[in-house]
């Protein structure tokens, strides 16, 4: 199916574009009343994610309602631990929770490498339905968590400010840590390849907890595995978003991927200098900027856009859009990107 709007893919590959493409991380499951209406008619996130027709419907809502240049499949990074044998629950207002975690080698022996197409068939079905219903309007983004971020949840058992149990494991059990990271990496490669076979046009790897490691540990326990994923996938363009990994920007310039995501703490010109000119940069407006007035949102967006002039860029926020943002301000952000010249 020929895409009518392939700005995202051309920008990712560094090809000529008429204007900068724009989408928002976490655009599908947070801000729209139309999303909440569907979500509230079900038992919760997991039921919605595992019902492909509905997952597809909420994936397409931001394309219809907000006018973004890409859809991102409605799912979560935590489907991978579940497919490996470590199920999660979503606790209302608190986030993910794992009844079991990995503490010892025998916990690890109970896990398996996920086969994306079978173990995560509900995501694959949702992608197939979404591709059909998008009918070529915009590209569909597939995604997965980076191995380090997934590891952090599998050890910790929930979200955390410090992930101290996960970081302790890197010091006390480095060999066990690497074994688990290798299993997550292989599962993630299988999963992303299945998403691509089902129709994902680009894939993004989210390393949301990159910033809690120091530079040496980041290279050893995270970047190494992200590199393996990028090397294994050559079917579609790849984006790596490592939140807080300002110290790794130079190394990320040599990853075999097309696009690097920037968070809002990363200075744009400095990031370009560190990463080099042969990558597209994605981002990086502070998500809190959308709490401002319409005029403030437009001014902040234009200020960001100016700093990216003359270099490969996909406009986005510096992290996921916050749940209590007014969708009208999101539209102001999108319109400000589209009319920027
Ligand atoms: O929002 C969308 O666009 C839909 C798809 C999507 C994506 C891309 C969801 C649905 N989750 C994610 C990615 C995700 N999930 C990340 C990486 C991006 C980021 O850093 O924001 C992370 C770290 C998670 C883990 C997760 N899932 C958290 C964070 C917990 C913590 O440690 O702070 C939470 C709260 C969830 C739940 C979740 N995921 C998605 C939704 C819609 C929800 C809310 C659940 C509900 O409705 O009850």
Which small-molecule ligands are present, each listed once? coproporphyrinogen I
Largest beta sheet: strand ordering: 1-4-5-6-7-8-9
Mean pLDDT metric: 97
Query: How many DSSP-defined strands?
Result: 9
Radius of gyration: 19 Å
Low-pLDDT ranges: none
Q: In CATH's first tier, which class applies? A: Alpha Beta
Give the distance, in angstroms, between the N- and C-terminal Cα atoms: 30 Å
**CATH architecture assignment:** Alpha-Beta Barrel
Structural account:
The protein has helices at 7-13, 33-40, 45-49, 52-65, 79-84, 105-109, 116-119, 121-134, 147-156, 164-172, 174-198, 215-232, 249-252, 268-275, 294-308, 327-338; strands spanning 71-72, 89-91, 95-97, 140-145, 202-207, 238-242, 259-261, 280-285, 313-317. 50% of the residues are buried. The chain starts with 6 loop residues before the first helix and ends with a helix. The chain has 341 residues and is of the alpha/beta class. Helix 9 (147-156) packs across helix 11 (174-198) and helix 15 (294-308) runs parallel beside helix 16. It contains 16 helices and nine strands. 48% of the residues lie in helices and 11% in strands. It has one domain: TIM Barrel, CATH 3.20.20.210. The model has no long low-confidence stretch (mean pLDDT 97). The chain is globular. The protein has a seven-stranded parallel sheet, sandwiched between helices. Strands 2-3 form a two-stranded antiparallel sheet. The chain binds coproporphyrinogen I. Coproporphyrinogen I (1CP) binds next to strand 3. Its main location: cytoplasm. Keywords: Cytoplasm, Decarboxylase, Lyase, Porphyrin biosynthesis.
């Amino acid at each position: 199916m020929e895409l009518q709007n392939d700005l995202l893919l051309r920008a990712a590959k560094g090809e000529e574009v008429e204007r900068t493409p724009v989408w928002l991380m976490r655009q599908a499951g947070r801000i729209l009343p139309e999303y909440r209406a569907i979500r509230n008619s079900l038992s919760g996130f997991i039921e919605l994610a595992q019902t492909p027709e509905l997952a597809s419907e909420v994936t397409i809502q931001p394309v219809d309602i907000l006018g973004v240049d890409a859809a991102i499949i409605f799912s979560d990074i935590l489907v991978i631990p579940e497919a490996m044998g470590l199920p999660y629950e979503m606790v209302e207002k608190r986030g993910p929770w794992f009844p079991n975690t990995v503490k010892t080698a025998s916990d690890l022996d109970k896990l398996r490498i996920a086969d994306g197409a079978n173990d995560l068939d509900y995501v694959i079905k949702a992608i197939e339905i979404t591709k059909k219903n998008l009918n070529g309007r915009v590209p569909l983004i597939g995604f997965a968590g980076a191995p380090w971020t997934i590891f952090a949840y599998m050890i910790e058992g929930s979200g955390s400010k410090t992930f101290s149990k996960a970081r302790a494991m890197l010091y006390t059990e480095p060999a066990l840590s690497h074994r688990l990271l290798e299993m997550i990496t292989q599962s993630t490669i299988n999963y992303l390849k299945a998403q691509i076979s089902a129709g994902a046009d680009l894939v993004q790897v989210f390393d949301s907890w990159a910033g809690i490691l120091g530079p040496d540990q980041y290279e050893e326990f995270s970047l190494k595995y992200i590199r393996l994923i990028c090397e294994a996938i050559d079917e579609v363009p790849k984006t790596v978003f490592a939140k807080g990994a300002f110290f790794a920007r130079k190394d990320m310039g040599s990853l075999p991927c097309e696009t690097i995501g920037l968070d809002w703490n990363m200075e744009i010109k400095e990031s370009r200098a560190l990463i080099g000119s042969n990558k597209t940069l994605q981002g990086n407006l502070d998500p809190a900027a959308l709490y401002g007035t319409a005029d403030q949102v437009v001014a902040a967006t234009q200020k960001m856009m100016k700093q990216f002039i003359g270099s490969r860029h996909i406009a986005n926020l510096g992290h996921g859009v916050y749940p209590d943002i007014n969708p009208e301000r999101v539209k102001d952000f999108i319109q400000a990107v589209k009319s920027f010249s």
